[in-house]
Amino acid sequence: MLRKVHYVLAISYLAVLLPLETAVCDNKGITTVSILADQASEDIQPGILHLEGHFSMQTRDWKLESTLATVYGKPDKPDKVYLEGSPARFSINRDNEGGMDVVEATAPEMLYQRSTNILRLSGGALLKLDEEMVRSKVIEYNIETERYRAGGADGVLIHVPVKD
To answer: pTM score, two decimals?
Structure first.
């Protein structure tokens, strides 16, 4: 049976203090991060949460999914999140001048580091940026600058549709 854990920060001033990439503010000033998993357990060391089975962590703007996850730091504002899956998935909705872009990433292993805003994909990764697709053994994506670096033994495949 799935157990759902909600972390709701009802104190409106916290919505202002949290970084935009990890906070969702509705018109009531409430910030919510939803975490779903079959099992959750705290580590012996404080600030580490292990989640297993059908893991999902999301806000209105982004979502992480995997089979296994380890969250380091506070769940509403993690220092880093390590995912393992077949594959693990990440998606974020971004506003731009022309509308809304969706960035999607999949890989057997994924590490998100909040301090640097870097998403590291490994084990055979796929990154979709609007209409561009990047496939490689390892991909590092900077969420803030929207730039990536890819490489690995099998090289890099970049697919970009031709526009007239």
So the answer is: 0.76
